[in-house]
Amino acid sequence: MSSSVVNANGATGVLAVKAPAIEDQDFYEVKHTQKGYGAYALKPIKRGTRILAEHPLLRIDQRAYFKADVEAAFAKLSPEDQKRYFELHSAHGQNPAHWPKGVDASLPAKERQRIAEEHEARISKEASIASIFRTNCMNITKGAALFYYNARFNHSCNSNAYFFWNEKIDMETIHAIKDIEAGEELTLCYIDPYQDRARRQWEFKHWGFACDCPACGDISNPESFAAKSADNRYRLSELDDMTSGFRTSPEVMLSNSRMMADMLEMVKLHLVEGFYNYALAKIYRDIGLMCEVRNDLKHAVAAISKALQVVEICCGTDCKEWAEVRDIEIRLGMKTTTLNGGVAEPKLSSESVS
Questions:
Q1: Statement to judge: residues 81 and 200 lie in one domain
Q2: How far apart are CA 130 and CA 73, in angstroms?
């Protein structure tokens, strides 16, 4: 599905982007339209294709960071990288009246400082080191980082690509999670897709844009895509709330009599919405682990196989998450072989996830 967004990357200044971190990349180009800058497919891209793998331009390796930390990291960049940094979009210049007027005095002093600095960056009249970082940064294992090429990918609540911090190779990756046509815009989902439309629109204010993708359309018609998507997301959020507290071990999960049914419903809704993300992989994994505890090895193997396929689609095979699921698959294979008297069962079909 083609995505439509109000661009978060409407940067001013000269753009001189040869899009790839890998120089011979020919999947997409960065171009300017009436919405601003975005990444557009140069050719058809199959689901599961790695479109981009990129090291950070600037990174902060601490969970609690402040304006001074970002400015100190920026000062260490080369003049060329500092210039590239300021080519990126800044969501400054926002109307202070659209934001709360104060910070809760009961919060710790450091948290109040962080919130105040973020607010100052968004309402300031000029782009700053802090405002650009706040607009474009992404979470990494122990902090946040800004990626020059990744920052050109716009948002859609029903995105066709997925970003993932691959700790093993120390790179942010982007994979196609749907088949993409030539000329189609490549989009990422910046936020938790389970959130309702009102919450999502509030989140987008922090980046200075409003989303008009199909999921953010008019929900007054119950037969519309937006209305059906809203129902699916509400149910996913509900199911997540009901199951998350049990997902500590297979035994604890099975102590909830509805756990298997709820997790299977979550799979169905993920597939309906096209959420081929790591969250879906973890749902399949947990279903497989529950089946293993029940000694239902046939369904355990099937679920873990699906989990492995989803991780490969959205994250690749060079991340620790893929290796962890692969270890489970190997263990189940050994159990199955033992139960069969040393004869391995035929390998399950490797067809792509539905």
A1: no
A2: 11
- Tokens linked to 42: 């140069």
Q: In one letter, which amino acid is 124?
A: S
The percentage of the chain sitting over the pLDDT mark of 70, rounded to a whole number, equals 89
Q: Where are the alpha helices (DSSP H) in the chain?
A: 67-75, 79-85, 109-123, 129-136, 197-205, 225-243, 250-254, 259-273, 278-293, 297-314, 320-339
Query: Residue 315 domain-assigned?
Result: yes
Q: Residue 316's domain spans which residues?
A: 225-339
**CA–CA distance, 322 with 227 (Å, rounded to integer):** 35
CA distances to 23, 97, 236, 259, 284 from 244, in Å: 42, 37, 11, 10, 14
Nearest to 275 by CA among 353, 206, 207, 209: 353
Does pLDDT of 1 surpass 70?
Answer: no
Confidence of residue 354 (pLDDT cuts 50, 70, 90): low
Q: What is the pLDDT of residues 291-314, one digit of tens each?
A: 999 999 999 999 999 999 999 999
Q: What is the pTM of this model?
A: 0.87
Do 245 and 335 have their domain in common?
yes
Tell me whether residue 191 is in a domain: yes
Q: What are phi and psi of 58, to 5 degrees?
A: -145, 135
